[in-house]
Structure formats: structure tokens, C-alpha cells
Amino acid sequence: MRKVILVSTLAVAVIFASCTTRQKVVVPPKPIVPIIPENIMGRGLVSAEQLSAFLLGVNQQMDTEFVENLSRFYVEEAAAEGVNHDVAFSQMCLETGFLRFGNLVTPDMNNFCGLGAIDAEHPGERFSTPRIGVRAHIQHLKAYATEEPLKQDLVDPRYKWVKKGIAPTIQGLTGKWAMDPDYDRKINGVLTRLYDEAFEK
């Protein structure tokens, strides 16, 4: 009888211990997708790794290392001038067809925003490296967004032609940067896809 009681007591103790030490399964909250920014100046929310993953998900033919470096350039160059890199990167994706190009500008030009692309005789500006091409894009975008001076040496040959601060918002780019009446909505469309990809996983 004593053995039965001892075994029963031991069994209860084991069950009680296992119940008390069992940890609760905590389900992490689902990330909240940010609101699409209105202003060009500001701070981006998406990491360089997320930018490259997004672009490579759309254009799987691109060289991974090139896209990763380009994404990092956008984060770094935009931060240097106070431009929202989410906005600049999304505009680049729109302007280049996610680096497929296909119009006047060709990949070897390192021109990621159609700078100076008018016609066959004026296909656009050329830049020596991808980083310089990104820097020119950021500087041109900043010229539209604010009257604040550049922080880095000027590399954008068309910077002087922009009326500074003429378009501080994405919506303001329509009719100024591009004549397409849906230009801002197209940039916002890319931004929406970017945020959905980056924050819903």
C-alpha cells in the first residue's frame, strides 16, 4: 500500500512539474504595413536587403550581387541627402522597368531615373559607376523636393535646371518630373508592393 501511494505521489509530482515548466507559445504580432509616404524628403523604412529581395522577386534575371549593391547605394546615398530611399528606389524601379530598361536608356549608362532621356539623339546622361548614377538620381530628386543645398559634391549635370523645391511630394512630380498624368500613382503602386513584400512576411 505504501508503495502504491509513493508511486502515485511521484506521478502527480512529475505531472505538476511538467505543467508548471511548460512555456506558453507566444505568436509574434504581424508587422503593420506602413502608410505610403507623401513627402520625398525623409527616412526610408525598408532595409537594403529587403529592397534587393523585392527587386529580384520581380526581375529574376538580374545579377544578385549587382542588385544588392545597388540597393545599398540607394540607402546610403539617400541618407546622405535626407531623401527617403523607399521613394527613390521605387521611382528607380518604375523608370527602369525594374532594371529591364528597354527604352532610350541602356544598362551601361548607369542612369537609373531617365535623366536627360528625350529622344534618339538625346538618350540620356551617362555615369561612370552605378553609385555615381544613384547619387545623381538622389541629387536630382532632392532638387525637386527642397531648397536645401546638397551635402555631397554635385554629380547631377541637370541639377542646375531644376527650380528648387518645386515638388516636395510624390504627387508633385506628376507634370514636372514626368508628363504622365498617373506618374505619382505609379510610384505609389510600386511603394505599395514594396511595403506589402517587406512588412507582411
Q: What is the CATH T-level topology? A: Lysozyme
SS class = mainly alpha
The shape is globular
Q: Give the count of structural domains.
A: 1
Low-pLDDT segments, ≥5 res? 1-21
Strand content: under 5%
Mean pLDDT equals: 88
Q: What's the gist of this structure?
A:
The chain is an all-alpha fold and 201 residues long.
Give a topology summary:
Elements: H1 2-21, H2 48-58, H3 64-81, H4 85-96, H5 130-145, H6 170-173, H7 183-199
Helix pairs in contact: 2-3, 3-4, 3-5, 4-7
Written overview of the protein:
The protein has 201 residues and is mainly alpha-helical. It has one domain (48-199): Lysozyme (Orthogonal Bundle), CATH 1.10.530. Helices cover 49% and strands 0% of the residues. It contains seven helices and no strands. The protein has helices at residues 2-21, 48-58, 64-81, 85-96, 130-145, 170-173, 183-199. Helix 2 (48-58) packs across helix 3 and helix 4 packs across helix 7 (183-199). The longest helix is centred in the N-terminal third of the chain and has 20 residues, at 2-21. The chain is globular, with a radius of gyration of 26 Å. The N and C termini lie far apart (59 Å). Mean pLDDT is 88; it is low at 1-21.
Key phrases:
201 residues, 0% strand, Lysozyme, mainly alpha, disordered N terminus
